[in-house]
Write a structure and sequence with these properties.
Radius of gyration: 41 Å
Distance between the termini: 74 Å
Shape: elongated
Number of strands: 55
Helix content: 10-25%
Strand content: 35-45%
Amino acid sequence: MKNLKKVMALVIVLSMVVSMFTVMTASAADFEDVIGTPYEEAVLTLAPMGVIAGYEESGVISFKPDQVVTRAEMAAFIVRQLGLSAAKTVTEFTDVPQDHWGSGAINIANKKSIVVGYGDDTFHPDEQVSFEAAVKMLVCALGYGVDAEDNGGWPAGYIAYGDKLGLLDGVEELLADTTAGCTRGTVALLLYNALDINMQEVSYYNGQVLSKTILEDTMTSEMGYEKWEDVIVAATDTAAVSGSLQDKGYVAFEGYSEDVVAGEWDMNAYLGRPVTVYVKYNKKANEYTIISVVGTSYNSEVVTLDAADIYGMDDTDLVYYVDKASSSKTAEYTLADLAIDGGDLTMVYNNKAVDQADQDYELITAATNGTITLIDSADDGVFERVIIETYQNYQVVETDVEENMLYLESTVDETEVELDDSKETNRPKFSIVDCEGAALTLADLAEDDVLSIYSDVYPTSGKDYVKDADALKIVACNHTIEGAVTSIANKKVYIDGEAYETDGVLSVNSFAIEDEGIFFLDFNGDIAFSDTAAVLDNFEFVYDGIVEGRDITLYTLNSNGDQVEYKMATTVRVDGSSYNMSQAADRNALATALKINGSEGLTDEYIVSLKTNDAGKITRITKLDGTKERGYLTHSDKLIGSYSLNADTVVFTLPANEDFDEDNLKATKYTSLSNNTSYNFKVCDVDKNGIVTCMIVYTTDGKVDLESNIAVIQSVATTKVDDEIVLSLTMIQEGKTVTKTTKTDDIFFINDTYETMYGESAAIAYGAYPGQIIMYATDTAGAISSVDRVYPRPCLAEEYEDGYYLVDEFQTWDNTFRRNDYARLFLGTGFVVEKNTNTKVMTVDSAIEDTDASFVANYGSARIVVVDTNMASDELAVKTGSAADIKAGDFVVVRKYKGTVRDIVVYKNFDAVPAFYK
C-alpha cells in the first residue's frame, strides 16, 4: 500500500441478523417504474393498502404509470379506497353484464351516486376515463357533489371544487389536456390526495338538500387505517430516545405508547425522523401494524449534509462549506443546546441514541465521511435533532472462516479487536451487507475488500472504534479502478482523467502525479485505499490445472520461463469474485472460473496476473483474456499490427494449430520474433502509454495458414544452424526480398521414394529451386518450420501432362483440389488470353486440358513477380515486376484472398520443368 496501514483482527460470529440503514420495501421493489417520478409517494402508499396493484409480465412487476385508466377501473379504485368489497353482480347498465369483472364496483359506485351512465342505460366501462370524469367521481365519493353542482356543475364546478379540496395538489402541472384519458400515475395522485380529506354527509328532504355535515371520517378511516405523524424513537436494532431496544419487528413512536409492528418496513432508516405512516389496528393482538410509510414530512425542515463538508461549530451554529472545492463560501444552521446542559437536543449516532452524558458537538465535527442530518421538527429555525451516520474504512487482509477470523488493515488503527455478540444478552446483532444492501456472511468476504464499518463508539471517546460496539453494520465493497493519477485538483484525484473523491481519512495529498496501480473504492465510490505496486507485471501462462480433493492446483509458465506450481489460499478472488476453499460449492465454482475440468486439466489456456500470500498460495487472480489479432512485425518501428512493443514486452509463444505441452511453450521477448513476418497473436495487457506489456504469439509450426502470403524462391543455398546443415532461401514476398533458413534439413527434398510413388514431376516439386512458389510458416526464431508448395505443385504421375503441374482454379487449401466459388483462397493458373489496360483486368484460360474454364483477375493492385524460364540464360531470373510485364500468352499463377487479387506470378518463356532440374 502507498500509505502505511496497521493490521487489526476482527472476530465475527456467523449467526448474524440483517440490519440495514436504507429503506427497502416490497412496494419499492415491485414498482421500479415509479421510482423518481411524481407518482412515487402515491403509488408506494396506496399499493400496500390494496387500493392499486401492479402488473406481472415474464417475472417483471411494474405499475405502468403512463397507461390510461378505464371508467370501470376508476370505479374499482374508488370503491376499494372506501373500504368496500365488490363481488360481481347485476347492474342497471345494459353494457355491464353480471360477468363483467367490474360489475360489482360499478354497481356500488352507481348506487352511491359516484358514477352515472350516459342516459341511454349504458356506462361504457371499457372507455377511457377523462381527467374531468375522474375528478368528478372522487368529489362525489367524498360527498361534495352537491357543492360542485352549486359552483358551476359539470365539468368546471367539479374541477374547481376538487382543487379547493386539495385533490389536484401536484397534478395540475402534469396535465396538458384535462379532457384526455387519465393515466394510472395521475389517478394514483388523485387517490392519494383524497385519502385524508374529511368526507361530507348530505341530508335530503323531498329531493332538497336539508343539511351538510363535515365528518371526521376520511377514506383512510373508511379502509380501517389510521394516519400518524410522529417521530420514530426506537426500532429493533436501534434506540434514539428511549435507550431501550424494541423486540424484533417492532418500532416505537415519540407520541404513541402503543405496540407497533414494522411489517415489511425497515424503520431503522427513519430513526429520529418525523414520518407520516398509515397503520392498521389488530384488536385481537392489541397492536398496530405499519401499512405504508410516506417518509419525513409534516411541518418539519430536514437538511442532510455530507460530513466531509462540515467546517466546524461556532457556539451552537453548525458551519459548513456550500462548495468545499472552493474552500471559501460557508453557511450555518443553528442547533439546539446540548441535552447535557439542559437543552433539548437529540443526537443519534449510527442508529443508536447518544446518552445525554455523552453529547458533544464534536461528535458532529469529528465525522470525516457519511452524512449529518438535521431536523427542525417545530419549523422554528432551530434544529433539535441531529442524526450522524459515519463509518470507518478497513481493508481485508485475510479471512479464516473456520476460526471466524477476519484480518483488516486501516490507515489509522493498530488495535486487535474482538467482537463477540454472545458477551451481552441485550446487545443488538450486527450485519454485513454488500453495496446493494444484500446480506453477506464472513465467508463472502475476500482479500482487498473495502469494509465500511459503522460503530456507535464515538471517535472522541478514546475507545477502539469497533470494540464491544452495541450497534454495528459493515458494508462490503470490491470495486476497484486501475490506472494512473493524471491530476490532483479541487480536493479530487483524477485517475486517467476521471475524478474521484477520497473517503475523508485518506488525503488527496497521499497521491502524486503518475502514481499507477489499483485504487480501492468504498460503497460511496470514494477512494479508501490504493496499491501503486499492483500494476500487472507478474504475467504467467496457465497451461494446466487440476482439482484434487479440497485443493486446486495451477501449473504455469512465468515470464522468466520457469514452470511453477501453485496452490490456493483459503480465500481466492478471481476478477472480483470471491471463492472460499472450505466450501465445496465455492471450490466447484472456482474450478469453473479457472477453466479446470476436475482432474482432466484445463479446457482452455490463458494468461493471469497472480498475487500470493507469504506461504506462496494464490489469494488473487486477474485473468487476461486478450483480443486476437493478426499483423506483421516491424522491428524498426517496434510494431506488431497496430500495437507498440518494447524490450520489456513479455511474449508467450505456443503452436497455433497443434496441441502443445509445457515443453513447447516458451516465454520470451519480442526481439526473438522474426521481422517482416505475419503472426497471429493475442494482446493481453497494455500499459498507459499504449505499450503491450504481455501478449501471446501463436507460432506457425503446423499447417500453413490461409492468410499467409506467397513467396517466390529466388535462390537457394546451404548453411549451418546449430551444427545442422539447413537451406537458406532468398525469396520475393510482398514485393520485398526476404531470406529465411529452414528449421530442419528435411522440409525440402527430392528423393527416389516420391519419384517411385508419384513420378518425376512430384519428386522435383518437393524440392526447393528458383521459380517455385510456396507458402510457409515460421517458428518464433523466424526459421521456416512448414511449407506448402503452391506451384509447381506435387501431383500424381498420371496428372502430370506435357510438363504442366496442374492446379484447379478454386481451392480450399486443405490439400484437396475442388471447385468452390466461396473459398477464402482462390488459386488459379493458366495463360493470359486478354489484357485490358483501361480496366486493369486480364482474362486467363485454365491450364487444365480438355476444359473451357477461364477466369478474370484485376491486376491493378496486385503484387507481381516475374520468373524468366529462358533456357538460354545461365540461371532463372526471378525479380519483382509490374503490370507492364504481363503479356498475352504468359503463363500466370493468380492468388486471390477473400475476393481480392493479392499476388500474380508471371512465367516468361514458360517451361514447366526447366531442363537443368531434370
